[in-house]
Amino acid sequence: METQKKPHAVFLPFPAAGHANPLMQLAEILHLRGFHITFVYTEHFYRQLVKSGGSNSIPNLAPDFQFVCLPENLPATLPDIGTRCTLTQKNCTEPFKNLLRQLMEKTPPPSCVISDAVMTFAMHAAKEFGLPEVQFWTASACGFLGNHVFEELIQRGICPLKDESYMENGFLDTPLDWVPGMKHMRLRDVNTFVYTTTPNDTMINYSIEQMKNCQRSGAIVINTFHELEKDVLDALATYYPPIYTIGPLANLTDGHLKDNTQNLSIFEVNKECLTWLDSKAPNSVVYVNFGSHASMTMEQTKEFGWGLAKCGFHFLWVVRPNIVNGEKVALDETFLEEIKDRGLVVSWCPQEVVLKHTSLGLFVTHAGWNSLLEAIVGGVPLVCWPIVAEQVTNCRQLCKVWGNGMELDKNVSRDKVAELVKEMMEGESGKQKRRIALEWKRKAEEATSPGGSSSHSLDNLIKHVMLKSE
User: Do 348 and 209 belong to one domain?
Assistant: First the structure.
């Protein structure tokens, strides 16, 4: 395609690996379809990537796949997520407009902006330059619907909570049988941002702003597939512009599986674990990873560790350097001696590859959306221990609707960990969940195959939104 005629997509993710990775996957897919790509980092996230050495994508991938940094001027010690969202919006708005202004003078000029729905300013910037814009929701459709009901929770007097006692007095079990598409929901299954006693809570208000932005958008993209979240997507269609389901993105590259997508990890990746997995029997390993940002207490970490030691199975456990309240974890020497013959503890790993490995029998996870989708792609059943945000919503759907896993009690103990892992690895419930997981894997492959629902949705997104043809 001649350079001056190339469509040019500008991508703006929120500066976190779980947000940036799905946008990168879509950017690579569009690049293969002939798009010129500008992928925008913020400076703090860029520095994290450089420090970790976890991304070989920081240099431009090709002359028509370039990376640009925006200054977000965050403090050296990262603030809480609410302040971080507010500062990013405040400090990045004008730099992003300046970037678009500069790109409009180049060849080819931008033809569309694809921004993370968290980056609420990007939609207004795109419209100011007359560019088609797409809001990319990087979590699940059920998580999207959970955020959609925030305003009604406030109107009904359910949120904010009256006081801290409402966290433990059973109020969180209030049924929300009025939520369309998810009538099995309880208050505790909505995004944990609602667990607040603060009027005008920052994250509640920010999330409501996101939802209103999405309602004004030209299109919404969700990294899911129609067959998985049909009832939820049907409910959302009443309130929002066209929603394009184009996942699992890990599967979707012109109808073919692609294993070499750029992984924007902020941690150094340990690939030696793959050799360790090669030595294990099929379906024999428990993989444990609670994501790139969630924090645990040291006591919770110990209980998980000794539960894994007690269950008797081989396990691969990712323990981030800063998993315990931002502090480096030092696992007990007695524990390490106990598990040396059957457990491997690493600081990070190539999760997509691990979850496709034949030795994997179970995934113990925080129920983050990228992790759940990667487990579906791998056909691996799950034990979920949700921690924050829409992870609780994902977990509820998984247990009540999708059926490919079970939930671990939030009051984690080594006995509960060992008991549930054993049941999932060799019990009747576990065998049933494994069959269901393999069925979802098949449906995901169908969705991302030529003519499948996600492939068709991607074609329509490109044709009717990004290229603005009728």
Answer: no
Tokens for 324, please give them: 């315990």
Please tell me the distance from the alpha carbon of residue 429 to that of residue 442, in angstroms, as a whole number. 20
pLDDT, tens digit, for every residue of 211-268?
999 999 999 999 999 999 999 999 999 999 999 999 999 887 544 434 444 555 556 6
The whole-model pTM stands at: 0.91
Phi-psi region of 188 (alpha: psi -120 to 50; beta: other; left: phi over 0): alpha
pLDDT at 380 over 90: yes
DSSP E strand stretches across 326-387 = 343-346, 360-365, 382-384
Cα–Cα separations (whole angstroms), residue 147 to 56, 101, 189, 392 = 34, 33, 11, 12
The catalytic site residues sit at 19, 116
| Radius of gyration over every alpha carbon of the chain, rounded to an integer in angstroms | 22
Q: How far apart are the C-alpha atoms of 144 and 215, rounded to whole Å?
A: 12
Residue range(s) defining the domain that contains residue 296:
272-445
- Let me know whether 300 and 397 are in one domain: yes
Q: Please give the pLDDT value at position 79.
A: 64
Conformational region of residue 367, where left means phi above 0, alpha means psi within -120 to 50, and beta covers everything else: left
CATH code of the domain in which 440 resides: 3.40.50.2000
d(CA 322, CA 303): 17
